[in-house]
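Team,

Forwarding the record for the chain on the shared tracking sheet. I've put the sequence and predicted structure together so nobody has to dig through attachments.
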Amino acid sequence: MIVETKLIGRRTPFERRPIDLPDGPHTLRGLLTHLVHHEVAAYHERQASVGVLRVMTERELQDGVAVGRVAVAPQERGVAVNPDDATRIALTAFGDGLYYVFIDDRQVSDLDAPVALRSDSTLLIVRLTALAGG
């Protein structure tokens, strides 16, 4: 599955990255839970390398230039993140309408309805921003 993210109001391009599909029947709740757990694990992996001298590869530099941002790992450790708490927050944010989810160009609004996925399906997450003064 390909996951795309976009923040409305920013000119940055969509971020696209492949993620393995979880096994079994799929619901939006299950997909979001899987995605949050995947992202928390990646965060913990990045945190493990904080404070270690890290040299960027030529490929990492080129990728950073392509998206307009070259950054190295943070120099101080962030706070510990609990995957279950992060999942609860993500699901609450979805329920509050802070982001929309599209699977293969169709908006999904029911967390518990079954969704059909293929290995080449695209999950698009569009985060909305509040307008000032409105």
